Amino acid sequence: MMKRVMLGAALGASVLFGIAQAKAEEAAICYNCPPQWADWGSQLKAIQQTLHITVPPDNKNSGQAIAALIAEKANPVADVTYLGGIAADPAKDAGVLMPYKPKNWDKIPADLKDPNGYWFTIHSGTLGLFVNKAALGKRPVPKSWADLLKPEYKGMVGYLDPTSAAVGQLGVMAVNLALGGTYDNLDPAIKFFKELAKNDPIVPKQTSYARVISGEIPILFDYDFNAYRGQYVDKAPVEFVIPKEGSLTFPYVMGLVNKAPHEANGKKVLDFVLSDQSQAMWGNAYLRPVFADKLSAEAKSKFLPDSEYARAKAVDLKKLAASQKAIVERYGAEVH
């Protein structure tokens, strides 16, 4: 009897172990896939429904994702990561990514992917001002970077921390180039942010979509896709502004983590984000999919006119990445 009990227990444990192992094999870990950002919530659901792979949401930003990947280099936890384009080459250079060319790789423009497959663009957004008009009260909607320095917007302007968030670093460069700086000369941006510091800005480290929708942050340096989502999906009193001095359009990329614990599932996820289904979903979430033909006419009709977007230039990823250290150091030393 005791032997039968022990055998039954052993078999039961074996079955439970097998189930747990199977569940583990049906998972993929993505760093920096926040459900409230860029409609990742819908993408994670679609991955589950289409691939039967569970990808838990993750609220890291690009800098935090790379820091975690480096810290875990000897024993990786993540399988794939999503990063602002400025972080693509630094992640590759840190040895935390490995090459993988997913399905539809050949269709990606050459300047939007690493030639050896370490990273590739899935979509892009244009940086501007995400404004909650109701939270402004009787103040006018700002139309320029310069407007944000006015005393009437004191305590109302937010931007993500440039010492770690890719969108924060892009904000520094967007302002810098718009005000006459270059990728090598950050003086205009540093001067601007020092002036803005006198206006009590709000500087979160994480995605702050909900804080704009609620009116807690009336004006946020953010992407068009978040503003359009607020306007058309959440029906909030918000609008998107491309500052009159100009701005930048920025790609977001993904890559396979070096020595990924669920490598096969990670590859399936990367194949999926370039599939027709996923690319159309990004477009319907008001991002510009890397395959432009997947942006439907209906979705594009919700964007500002092309004449407004003419003020937003494509960022030079190589030059921006080369400026990243200086952005972080100078902002930290002179503004923070």
TrEMBL record:
Coiled coil: none
Pfam families per the UniProt record, alphabetical: SBP_bac_6 (PF13343)
Thylakoid keyword on record: no
SUPFAM superfamilies per UniProt: Periplasmic binding protein-like II (SSF53850)
Keywords: Signal
Superkingdom, taxonomy of origin: Bacteria
Secretion signal, residue range per the UniProt entry: 1-24
Record bears the keyword Signal: yes
Protein name, per record: Extracellular solute-binding protein
Organism: Ferrovibrio xuzhouensis
Upper lineage: Bacteria, Pseudomonadati, Pseudomonadota, Alphaproteobacteria, Rhodospirillales
